[in-house]
Amino acid sequence: MPQTPQTPPRDGASRDAEETCRILLTLMREELDDESVTEDDDFYAVGGDSLIAVRIVARANERGVGIRLLDLLMHPSARELAANAGESAADEPAGAAEPSPSGLPGHGDSPEAPGTPARRPASALQIGLVYQCEMSEDPGLYNDLIGVRVRGPFDEARFRTALTALLARHPALRSSFDLAADPEPVQLVHPDPALPLEVEYPTPPQTGTGAADAACAAAAEAWRARQLGTAFDWETPPLFRCHVAAAASAAEGFRLTVAMHHALMDGWSFATVVTDLIRLYDAAVTGTDPALPMPPPGAHELFVAAEREAASSAEAARFWQQHAEGPQVLPDRARDTPPGDSSARLSLPFDDALSAGLRSAAAQAATPLKSLLLAVHCWALAHWSGHPDGMVTGVVLNGRPEQQGAELSVGLFLNTVPLRLPTAAGTWTERARAARDAEIAATGYRHYPLARIEEQVGRPPFDVAFNFTDFRVYQQLEGLGSLQVDEWYHADKASHPVSLDYTLDFPGFGTGLLASYDQQAVPEHRLRELVGLVAEGLRSAAAEPSGRPPARETTRAATTASSSR
């Protein structure tokens, strides 16, 4: 990506490694909120993740320290990163850069006439999600909902003010798509769409304690069912909905549900939207300043520019071709197979002891927790499928631009790519490091469109997807001035036959594994076997990271369920 202009030291001399190390260590401590971090600590082993890494990279560049996200992955301590700062740009793989968005349709052109929507390019991922929905004819596909009970007063006028401020803050929430635009589909950002709010004041059928809340819960449930059964109209803004079921007495609280189409935003963005809305409303009720920092402009355009740059890279194409070639769980699944109904669910909560053990094991391996979880995931998938030498799995990668405040931006900034780890062997520590190294190697090509990979291999490149998300953004809802939130509700449906989502502090669930799957493609008993293997691997890794995984039979037959529709 284009580096933020570097500010030279005041004396004009180059910074030495020691001073650079001090700058980087200070940034790590501030972003991790941990003064105990030392210059030799592994950033990821002490709690760092990709979103925090993006902030450190952006802030370092603002201070004249030229580093990239890939540098922090390869050199995760302040001392090691300082020694290599600015030295790896020449070795950057093709497709790794995030170029300027100038020249993209809708960017740098003459301003639109007042009242007309701004045009910005749709990403390949957005177009792909819309295509999947059109092919499936399933209104619930990628129709994502989050609901919550809010304990506190409901003032409709103030809530409308908060929602209006939310839409002004995040352009994605005011968007629609023009799929027939010439020469290519565009995302239209409307300046003043109709406020997407529906408010109900249900009358409880009876009186008594809890009757009003029960009526609100029933109204919210009915609205959610209608929303999941109604497909979004791509051309009608906004692709975002908000529903409130409030008790007649303002003090009795309300049920809030927010719905959006996944083509607008990723999971972190959706969590940000819900958090921002509740904080804005809380500030409106209390008459205080919400103190929400503004997201940086142009994040969507930078993502699309990086995606297009990567799509033109022959080196990136070769890289993903190699990773996509391998055994599949559903070998007969064709490119034109409509997505199935991946609405079945299994869960595996992590208790405190397991969570602590996994964090300790990842720290001992000097890897991110995500790497250890991916290693266990791949071990379980390999034995479940009957291919102990390794299976191709989809892995969700963060593709947010490396700019200050990137985590505040709302949009679709991810990519799910096929990864096949080296032959399964070694201790859990060695496997976690292999998973970390595989993700490092993939980072330079992370914007290469999944649709291109699918075209190259002639089929969906994976059947089982892995995702890891730390939902710490919801911590911002602690200590609100007049509101409390509880009783969370979530609904989402992806197009992958199997999705394994590993979550930290997910409201209403906590920390653990949420598995969703298509029962027509993978029967329940088979998915339970996979989740059971994951649980076995997690316990083994947490108990003895320097040990080897449990010995298992390797002749397990892959699922033979039909993937046809």
Distance between the termini: 42 Å
Helicity level? 25-40%
User: How many helical elements?
Assistant: 15
How much of the polypeptide forms β-strand, as a percent range?
15-25%
**Largest sheet: number of strands, sense, barrel closure:** 6 strands, mixed
Oligomerization: single chain
Overall residue-averaged pLDDT value: 86
Approximate shape? globular
Integer-rounded radius of gyration? 24 Å
Q: Unreliable runs, pLDDT <50, ≥5 residues?
A: 1-14, 88-98, 105-111, 554-565
Strand order of the largest sheet: 8-14-13-11-9-10
Q: What is the count of β-strands?
A: 14
- What structural class is derived from the secondary structure elements? alpha+beta
The helix-strand sequence is HHHHEHEHEEEHEEHHHEHHEEHHEEEEH
Short note summarizing the structure:
This protein is α+β, with helices and mostly antiparallel strands. The chain has helices at 17-32, 50-62, 69-74, 78-84, 124-136, 156-169, 211-228, 267-286, 299-311, 314-324, 352-365, 369-385, 428-443, 450-457, 524-543; strands at 118-121, 143-151, 175-178, 186-189, 197-200, 240-246, 254-261, 344-349, 393-398, 414-419, 464-470, 484-491, 498-506, 510-517.
